Amino acid sequence: MAKKKKSDKTILYKITCGQCSEHLYNYRKNGKGALLRCYVSGIYDAPKAIMEKLNEANTKSEIPNIHCYKCNTLIAVPTVVKKNGKLALRMIQGGFHREKI
Length: 101
What we know:
The protein is mainly beta. The protein has one helix and eight strands.
């Protein structure tokens, strides 16, 4: 059986709070499909304090839960993807909105 061809399609998303619509960060997603998790390496344009923690993190316990800065709604929790071992944020359904940039 032939290997599936990986999609080289990159989509840029603006992630906002699902409750108050506060801008949280931008995310670069590779491939198609639902936005279930955000890989740490694809997050950019986040507040400086969050970016420093994400860039320095080597384990899931070093990444904080992501809350809205305005209304304190839980947006995402840290996780490690089993198939490739990469650090990611598992997005909470209904806690965020995404908009293509």
